[in-house]
Automatic annotation (TrEMBL):
PANTHER family: BLL0505 PROTEIN, PROTEIN-METHIONINE-SULFOXIDE REDUCTASE. This is Sulfite oxidase. It comes from the Bacteria. Signal peptide: none annotated. Residues 96-232 form the Oxidoreductase molybdopterin-binding domain. Gene3D superfamilies: Oxidoreductase, molybdopterin-binding domain (3.90.420.10). It comes from Halomonas beimenensis. Transmembrane segments: none annotated. CDD domains: bact_SO_family_Moco (cd02108).
């Protein structure tokens, strides 16, 4: 498959940045956002959700791999077993009582059971996960395309970010959370994944539901999802920088 030049360049940059271990150095975001559609996105505050979605659908896809490339076990990282009582109770009940709340700047706030999510059209993709710590892993993910779910709840035009609220807390009490802009949220490979390598998502990898944003680094891919909140700003959430690791100095834009 031939990929468009800007995506090849992005991959090359990602590879060389990983190789030199300089991912957290300045300039990454400027380089990786220099795709051809960028001038349009600079005016993104004025765009309707329909326009965001249309533009996102034309964007480069992250590389997809073959079944032969899948790693025997997908290496877990960060939280691998949330100890929060509420989560443990849900896990003990095989997540039958779990619900994904979707609220904020949406027309129809809704709560989705796992069963309801599994009944929606799904997408399966084999992709490579890159963690800032310097490792990669290839796995097959199945889930609901986030853009489809957002279309169901009707995102208001003033929404600019999706915030992903997770079940796990870190020592000190802060909950893991993340956020994406609408461009990444509507990207065709951005999934709410409930299966890994054809089996229900293991707890270590984020059961019952985790984000896959395949053009982003691993820390963006929130596990143990409990709630999606559509917002026009994340300044009032957590430490105000758009994510648990961002509040501790990681870059909000983690495109690769
Ligand atoms: N809720 C939650 N999501 C999370 C993390 C976490 O600790 N908690 N770690 C992040 C990091 S740094 C990585 S690399 C990936 C790891 O996903 P995996 O456990 O499936 O490898 O999850 C990301 N999402
Ligand atoms: Mo990571």
């Amino acid at each position: 498959m031939t990929r468009p030049p800007d995506e090849r360049r992005r991959r090359f940059l990602a590879g060389s940045l990983l190789a030199t271990g300089s991912l957290l150095l300045g300039g990454c975001d400027r380089l990786s956002r220099s795709g051809t559609l960028q001038p349009l996105f600079d005016a993104s505050e004025a765009l309707t959700q329909r326009a965001h979605r249309l533009l996102a659908s034309r964007e480069a896809l992250a590389r997809e791999y073959t079944p032969a490339d899948i790693a025997p076990t997908f290496r877990p990282n960060g939280t691998t077993f949330p100890r929060e009582r509420a989560y443990m109770r849900l896990a003990a009940g095989h997540f039958r009582a779990w619900r994904l709340e979707v609220d904020g700047l949406v027309e129809r706030p809704q709560a989705f059971s796992l069963e309801a999510l599994r009944a929606l059209p799904s997408r399966t993709q084999i992709t490579r996960h890159d963690c800032v710590e310097g490792w990669s892993c290839i796995g097959q993910w199945t889930g609901v395309v986030l853009g489809d779910l957002l279309a169901r709840v009707g995102v208001k035009d003033e929404a600019r970010f999706v915030v992903f609220h997770c079940a796990d807390r870190f020592p000190g009490g802060d909950r893991y959370y993340e956020s994406l802009d609408m461009r990444e949220a509507y990207h065709p490979q951005t999934l709410l994944a409930y299966a890994l390598n054809g089996a229900p998502l293991p707890i270590a990898n984020g059961a019952p539901l985790r984000l896959r944003a395949e053009r982003q680094l691993g820390y963006k891919m929130a596990k143990y999802l409990m709630r999606l909140e559509l917002v026009d700003s994340f300044a009032h959430i957590g430490g105000g920088r758009g994510g648990f690791w961002e509040d501790r100095g990681y870059r909000w834009w983690a495109g690769i």
